[in-house]
Structure formats: C-alpha cells, structure tokens
C-alpha cells in the first residue's frame, strides 16, 4: 500500500484511535472495478469495527480523505457505493457533502446498491476549514 500512496494511486488508510492507538478499521480510496457502469471512477469508503460505530469516526476520517483526494491527488470527483440496508453509511455520505446519484444493482444481479457522488468543485464550495476537516479522533495512516 505504501507504494500506491507514494505514487499517488488511490488506496485505503488504516484508521487508528489517537487516544488508544487501537486500529479501528480503514478509510480510504479505491477503484470500484466490481461495478463497471461507474468506471472510470474513484470511490471513497470505510470499514470500521462495530465497537467503533456511531462515534463519528467514519465521518471524521472521510473528511480527511476527501481533502487528500481533492487537494493532494487533485481528483475531479469521488463516488461512494453502499447497500441501502446500511443506512449509517448513507448518512456518512450525506454528512461529508455527497449527493445521491442513482440506484443500481451488482452486475451479477446481487443486492441493490446506492451511489453517491461529490465533485471537487462542490467540495470546495462547501469544504470545512482546515481545522474542521482534519481527523481529530482518528488518525489516517497509510497501511
């Protein structure tokens, strides 16, 4: 992963609780090859252990990753994909400024999927200050 990060290629970051140094999951970027209809694109996503849900950590970490994606990698747009039954992920997407794009399904006819989208332009217009979008409770480190 370090090679991807150093080369400016989208990759996930380990999410660590700063207070305890405990690994809580990951937050980062990936290319959603599993869903050809959205290609080419880069997806922002997160996976946190259940004991860390509901604490705002995904939102804080995602805000830091948005800044990295738009400021450092200079991406024009990000998407995020989730299964509608995972309402919490959808709320995180809304809190970080993403907007509903469309509903679809896995190409193999699997469960429904919902896609959210955010452009760099929209992010700049609504971006929080540097202090606000820095990760306060979770430190994003390249894994």
Structure description:
The protein has 143 residues and is an alpha+beta fold. It has a single domain, classed as Gcn5-related N-acetyltransferase (GNAT) (Aminopeptidase), CATH 3.40.630.30. The protein contains five helices and seven strands, in the order H-E-E-E-H-E-H-E-E-H-H-E. The strands form two sheets. It has a four-stranded antiparallel beta sheet with strand order 3-2-1-7, with helices on one face. A hairpin with a 5-residue loop joins strand 1 and strand 2 (23-30). The chain is globular, with a radius of gyration of 15 Å. 30% of the residues are buried.
Summarize the structure.
It contains five helices and seven strands, in the order H-E-E-E-H-E-H-E-E-H-H-E.
Key features of this structure:
alpha+beta; 4-stranded antiparallel sheet; disordered C terminus; 3-stranded antiparallel sheet; single chain; 7 strands; 143 residues; Aminopeptidase; 5 helices
């Amino acid at each position: 992963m370090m090679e991807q990060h150093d080369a400016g290629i989208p990759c996930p970051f380990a999410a660590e609780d700063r207070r305890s140094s405990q690994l809580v999951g990951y937050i980062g970027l990936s290319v959603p090859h599993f869903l050809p209809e959205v290609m080419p694109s880069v997806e922002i996503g997160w996976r946190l252990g259940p004991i860390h849900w509901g604490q705002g950590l995904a939102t804080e970490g995602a805000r830091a990753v948005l800044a990295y994606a738009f400021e450092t990698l200079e991406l024009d747009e990000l998407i995020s994909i989730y299964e509608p039954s995972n309402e919490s992920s959808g709320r995180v997407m809304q809190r970080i400024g993403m907007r509903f794009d469309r509903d679809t399904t896995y190409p193999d006819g699997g469960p429904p999927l919902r896609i959210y989208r955010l452009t760099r332009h929209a992010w700049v217009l609504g971006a929080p200050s540097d202090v606000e979008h820095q990760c306060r409770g979770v430190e994003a480190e390249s894994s």
